[in-house]
Design a protein that fits this description.
The chain is an alpha+beta fold. It is 44% helix and 22% strand.
């Protein structure tokens, strides 16, 4: 049972993927069954521990992960496509620099065939990691 508590504490202390949780629960349940005299033989205890832990892992982990997952920051970044950014410095074609978007400074790459001037309105076309690909707005 102490091993089960240690596994549960380890799951809480680390940013794991809900693996130790199921083995901790399996150890606690097996310890409880052993204390009640239901599972006495050590080999049977290992079998019950393994079956409970792996069974719970296979049946419950995916549900637990989906319940605790929040919307990814990627969704918010993808929402920047089509927004207007304003370079804070001149950008040659293909050059990387800084631009203001929604009051925040972003790393941008000039995806246009012409230079972009500081203060010129640009449209975000694509996102590569945390770098925005921008092109000058058509007049």
């Amino acid at each position: 049972m102490l091993f089960g508590l240690a596994l549960l504490a380890g799951e809480l202390a680390t940013p794991g993927g809900f693996y130790a949780l199921f083995f901790g629960i399996g150890a606690l349940l097996t310890g409880g069954l052993a204390a009640a005299g239901v599972v006495v033989a050590p080999s049977l205890q290992w079998l019950v521990f393994s079956a409970l832990s792996i069974g719970a892992l296979l049946l419950m982990r995916r549900r637990l992960l989906s319940a605790f997952q929040s919307s990814t920051p990627r969704d918010a970044i993808d929402g920047l496509r089509g927004e207007i950014a304003v370079p804070v410095e001149d950008l040659a074609p293909g050059a990387v620099g800084k631009a203001e978007l929604r009051g925040t400074s972003w790393t941008v790459r000039n995806g246009d065939t012409r230079p972009l001037r500081a203060g010129e309105r640009c449209r975000v076309e694509r996102i590569d990691g945390l770098t925005l690909l921008v092109r000058g707005e058509s007049a």
